[in-house]
Design brief:
Helices cover about 10% and strands about 25% of the residues. With about 350 residues, it is mainly beta. It is rod-shaped, with a radius of gyration of 59 Å. The protein starts with about 35 loop residues before the first strand and ends with a strand.
């Protein structure tokens, strides 16, 4: 059998072709948005137009007639004309949220971008379903609150809450500085408000157990008072017959101060002096003398002339001053009498002095 030799293909290079043409240099594309150039054009009212200028490089070249665009912070507009590559005449389509003129201007550098047409309203069934399921009414805020079961508190601010009825429970005790009492019990509330025990008493059952009462109308006899503000008037209102008693007194009269007067207020406007008594000497009175007069300095009428007090040799002893004859015949009216030391004791010494007699007023 004969042996076959395989074929071998050999590629022979052909001549080099003519070089191709170099491609053109690429150019930058345009943005599908631009910015407003200047802020002097007023925003038109709904269904009216205004022509705005747009900044390069995009200008208005990316826009088309009847296209819907969005102006930042102003709203949606429809392109009605393109007067130049940097101008656009826009119609305010009045979508919800659009600015409706009113002296507002298109903002400088505000973005203008492509947008779309507003879709048609959904079927009325949607609102009906919401209401049927006690959800909000999308077109009436008052009805929405009703549908959601919200009360009048829902429209109040935290800084101006007005509660006109109902109850409040389970809160922290409202401080006095916030118009509360700062307490959850009546007793603690009274304490915090600075109220005393009088606060719980009724006007027809007042019990006063201490303190003082001043500046009131004289309490009538029928109410347990005297109906008067002076002792004399009180005795008259109480029907007390004028009688014998203490007219005036001095406790611890200093008899070691010569020619010094001590005033004694008399308890009657008209009186007869019957007796001037001294007692309870602090030491044996061996030197002191004294008297009683209707005027200071030993003046006026002498009731008891200056005389020795030596009968008072101990605190257990008493003595009476010798009265002038006039004391047995005259009615006195001086409101103040004066005890006067004639001769000082020479050592610290005191004695009590009492004036007795008939009260005639």
């Amino acid at each position: 059998m004969a042996t076959t030799t395989p074929c071998r293909i050999v590629q022979v290079p052909g001549p080099q072709g003519v070089p191709g043409v170099s491609p053109a240099a690429p150019t930058d594309g345009l943005n599908a948005y631009s910015q407003i150039d200047g802020g002097t054009v007023a925003v038109p009212t709904y269904s009216n137009t205004a022509t705005i200028t747009l900044k390069e490089p995009a200008g208005s070249r990316w826009m088309a007639d009847v296209q819907i665009v969005y102006v930042q912070a102003i709203g949606y507009f429809q392109v009605l004309a393109l007067p130049s590559e940097t101008e656009a005449t826009l119609l305010n389509v009045g979508y919800p949220g659009n600015v409706n003129g009113g002296g507002v201007f298109f903002p400088d550098s505000a973005l203008v971008t492509p947008a779309g047409l507003q879709g048609p309203s959904g079927p009325a069934l949607a609102d009906a379903l919401l209401k049927a399921n006690n959800l909000s009414d999308l077109t009436d805020t008052a009805a929405a609150r009703t549908n959601l079961g919200l009360g009048t508190m829902a429209v109040q601010d935290a800084a101006s809450v007005a509660i006109t009825g109902g109850t409040i429970a389970g809160i922290t005790d409202l401080a006095v500085s916030d118009g509360g009492t700062g307490a959850s019990t009546a007793a603690n509330a009274r304490t915090n408000l600075g109220l005393g025990t009088m606060a719980t008493q009724d006007a027809n059952a007042v019990a006063i157990t201490g303190g003082s009462v001043a500046g009131i109308t004289d309490l009538a006899v029928a109410d347990g008072g005297t109906g008067a503000s002076t002792a004399a008037a009180a005795r008259t209102n109480l029907g007390i017959v004028t009688g014998y008693g203490l007219l005036g007194s001095i406790t611890a009269w200093n008899v070691n101060s010569a020619t010094t007067d001590t005033a004694i207020t008399m308890g009657s406007a008209r009186y007869i002096i019957d007796k001037v008594e001294l007692d309870n000497a602090s030491i044996n009175l061996t030197t002191a003398t004294g008297g009683l007069f209707t005027a200071a300095g030993g003046g006026g009428t002498t009731i008891a002339a200056d005389q020795a007090l030596s009968a008072l040799t101990a605190s257990t002893k008493f003595t009476d001053l010798s009265l002038q004859a006039i004391a047995g015949t005259d009615v006195f009216t001086a409101g103040t009498l004066y005890a006067r030391v004639g001769t000082a004791q020479g050592a610290a010494a005191t004695v009590n002095l009492r004036i007795f007699g008939w009260k005639l007023d």
